[in-house]
Specification:
This protein is globular. It is α+β, with helices and mostly antiparallel strands. The protein has seven helices and 19 strands. It is 19% helix and 32% strand. The strands form four sheets. The chain has a six-stranded mixed β-sheet, sandwiched between helices. A six-stranded antiparallel β-barrel has the order 14-17-16-15-18-19. It has a five-stranded antiparallel β-sheet with strand order 5-6-7-4-8, with helices on one face. The C terminus is likely disordered. The chain folds into three domains: 125 residues, Gyrase A, domain 2, CATH 3.30.1360.120; 88 residues, Aminomethyltransferase beta-barrel domains (Alpha-Beta Plaits, 2-Layer Sandwich), CATH 3.30.70; 77 residues, Elongation Factor Tu (Ef-tu), domain 3.
Length: 359
């Protein structure tokens, strides 16, 4: 157990490599109760959200979700979010644990003047996630929902193991799976029933360590690593979520429009180590001869699927093309690595429900 944003969280239950492989091949069950849940209600909840975040959300229909970003007026990223439309006047925003208070405060401030109410409901929800190829089969025996009809990036109310839940087909592992929002008093019972139901399918509980290596293989950014207040969506390769083409006056629009018109100063890339040492967060990336600094590693770990260390890094644009060989300063000595496109891993097409696992 480790401290994580003020929560005591499981780093691993046994072997983090085994937990990682279980998610890729069968299923892993995660406790995500540290995540923040903020609700917006009212006749102008949708337009308030459109003003607050960088995406055009008013086109979403009931039950759909969208990955988006909350940015500062200068375009810096304050957090990445998933926004769910529960109904025309009822929206749910899921924020990272460390940023939940900031997100709730910003949404409240940016909703002033709109007919919308913002409530931080983080204490009212626990969240568990079952991720992996067998997730749908396991949950099918516990829920009244038709899971085949619940497509990727959708959400629906229902029951799971006898508890009232919100069931979302979303995740942060690169696999098919579900994130379940449940009342805290019901969470432990639902957790135990899912593990019991999934025993024959080889479902295991999984901790933060496996969650991090899974999202790294899937090329998914983590706030505080690939995303931060000093980076814009265009730095992070997430310009596609910025709705500059929409007639929406969102916070940071002018700064992001100016940034979109400029050539990139850095690019987020993948690195595959050509040796055995792991490029870790903060390690400098250098030219092959070590004479020039090209950028910095943002996340790195051994990849159980590739069998080699991998990393994400921000590099100068002239060093960011795939197949470029660079050097990583690993505690004073260099380790050669090859630049590759992201993600490192995509789940097989036969296992895909809806669209790509990258948000």
């Amino acid at each position: 157990m480790v401290d994580f944003a003020g929560w005591s969280m499981p780093l691993r239950y046994g072997s983090e490599a085994a937990e990682h492989q279980a998610v890729r091949t069968t299923g892993g069950l995660f406790d995500l109760s540290h995540m923040g849940e903020i609700e917006l209600t009212g006749p102008e909840a949708a337009v308030a959200l459109d003003h607050a975040v960088v995406s055009d959300l008013t086109r979403l229909v009931d039950g759909r979700a969208k990955y988006t970003l909350l940015c500062a007026p200068d375009g810096g990223i304050l957090d990445d979010l998933i926004v769910y439309r529960l109904a025309a006047e009822h929206w749910l925003v899921v924020a990272n644990a460390a940023n939940a208070g900031l997100v709730a405060g910003e949404l409240a401030a940016r909703s002033a003047g709109f007919s919308a109410v913002v409530e931080d409901r983080s204490a009212d929800w626990a969240m568990i996630a079952l991720q992996g190829p067998r997730a749908a089969g396991v949950l099918a025996g516990l829920t009244d929902r038709d899971l085949a009809a619940l497509r990727y990036y959708t959400i629906a109310p229902g029951t799971l193991a006898g508890a009232e839940v919100l069931l979302a087909r979303t995740g942060y592992t690169g696999e098919d799976g579900f994130e379940v929002m449940v009342r805290p008093d019901d969470a432990a019972r639902v957790w135990e029933r899912v593990l019991e139901e999934g025993k024959d399918a080889a479902v295991v509980p999984a901790g933060l360590a496996a969650r991090d290596t899974l999202r790294l293989e899937a090329g998914m950014p983590l706030y505080g690593h690939e995303l931060s207040r000093t980076l814009t969506p265009y730095d992070a390769g997430l310009g596609r979520v910025v709705a500059l083409e929409a007639p929406v006056d969102f916070v940071g629009r002018d700064a992001l429009a100016a940034r979109a018109a400029e050539p990139p100063t850095r690019r987020l890339v993948g690195l595959v180590s050509l040796g055995r040492r792991v490029p870790r967060t903060g390690y400098p990336v250098l030219s092959p001869d070590g004479s020039r600094r090209l950028g910095e590693v943002t996340s790195g770990a051994p990849s159980p699927i590739l069998g080699r260390p991998v990393a994400m890094a921000y590099l100068d644009p002239d060093a960011a093309e795939p197949a470029t060989v660079v050097a990583v300063d690993v505690r004073g000595s260099t380790e050669r690595a090859e630049v590759v496109g992201l993600p490192f891993y995509r789940r097989p097409a036969a296992a895909t429900q809806g669209s790509s696992p990258s948000p």
